[in-house]
Amino acid sequence: MKIFTVGHSTRSWPEFLQLLQKYAISLVIDVRAFPSSQRFPHFNREYLARELFGAGISYWWLGRELGGYRRREEGLGENSPNKGWQREGYRIYADYMLSEPFAAAVDQVIQAASRQTATLLCAERLYFRCHRQLIADYLTWKGQEVWHIEDLTVVKRHVLHRLAREEEGRLIYPPPQLPLIEKDSVEKD
Hints:
The protein is globular, with a radius of gyration of 19 Å. A hairpin with a 5-residue loop joins strand 5 and strand 6. The strands form two sheets. Strands 3-2-4-1-5-6 form a six-stranded mixed β-sheet, sandwiched between helices. It has one domain: Alpha-Beta Complex (Protein-Tyrosine Phosphatase, Chain A), CATH 3.90.190. The chain contains six helices and eight strands, in the order βαβαβαααβαββββ. By secondary structure, it is an alpha/beta fold.
């Protein structure tokens, strides 16, 4: 089973639909916290759901459960095991990934993707500039095969982020460890 991710970016509706059809996507799982776009109204939730339905593709908004832009209170602050992320938004999202609501939502995604070819949808074209990176890490850690659709000819298999570690049965992002310096290798004055 494969789970895809895709960013709608600035694509036209025909381009986006062609992309979904190329990879035989039958379910779009929208993980945008705010499923709308002023510049590209064809990616507004209502329009998207209607047009996808017309093309024989199911639509499911999971932005409340899996959307980015988590509130600061959803993070763990100084107790965060995810201090490897320099960007506060990613750190807070990684903290949220430790929660039961996140785990339950991901389990729903896995169940849905076992029945049909699913893609996670967000706005950013490049997954590594989006919280899809973190969701994909979690799915990969859970044993799922994740692929990122970039365009009609480029799809990349997900690899865990270099900071990702398993600790006590959790996926975390601690700061990178500095190399140890051996006592004998230190120059003397």
